[in-house]
Amino acid sequence: MPAPAPAPVPVRWYVAESSAGDAARSVRLGGIIAPTRRLALRWLRRQARRFADALDPDPYTSWIPPRALHPVATGTPGGSLPVPNGARYDAPAELRAWADSFREHDYALLRLADGLPYEFVARDPSGWYGLVVRPLAR
């Protein structure tokens, strides 16, 4: 008599979402349902880079006309608002650092493997940008 077939391994899907907002409102910017946690995180990393490039584009990018952008120092007229206690909020830099961080990526994978959600929020004086991934219930 042949051995019984092993029980099928349940497949877990993941929801990844991006959002942004300020003190008064929040807006869902996009989302996907992915068959693996790695694909969900890959999508979030692309979103983080996309947001960072939209908020703080490279002034030498080909689609920007010459001399259209210039650096502005923090706390100067026309620059960023000063922040309390000498702290600096730089959402584009935080988003880029998160997208390039293998340590954060590994931490997120471990949380998802344990069935827990993972969330990253970057803030600046004008608002916040959130990236969330969570497993779907089985």
Characterization of the model:
The structure is a single chain. The protein is an alpha+beta fold and 138 residues long. The protein has a domain at 14-60 and 88-135. It contains 3 helices and 4 strands; from the N terminus they run ββαααββ. It has a 4-stranded antiparallel beta sheet with strand order 2-1-4-3. A hairpin with a 4-residue loop joins strand 1 (14-21) and strand 2. Helix 1 (37-55) runs antiparallel to helix 2. It is elongated. The chain starts with 13 loop residues before the first strand and ends with a strand. The model is unreliable at 75-81 (pLDDT under 50).
Can you give me a brief rundown of this structure?
By secondary structure, the chain is an alpha+beta fold. It has helices at 37-55, 91-100, 102-113, and strands spanning 14-21, 26-34, 118-124, 127-135. It has a domain at 14-60 and 88-135.
Keywords:
four-stranded antiparallel sheet, 3 helices, single chain, elongated, alpha+beta, 138 residues, 4 strands
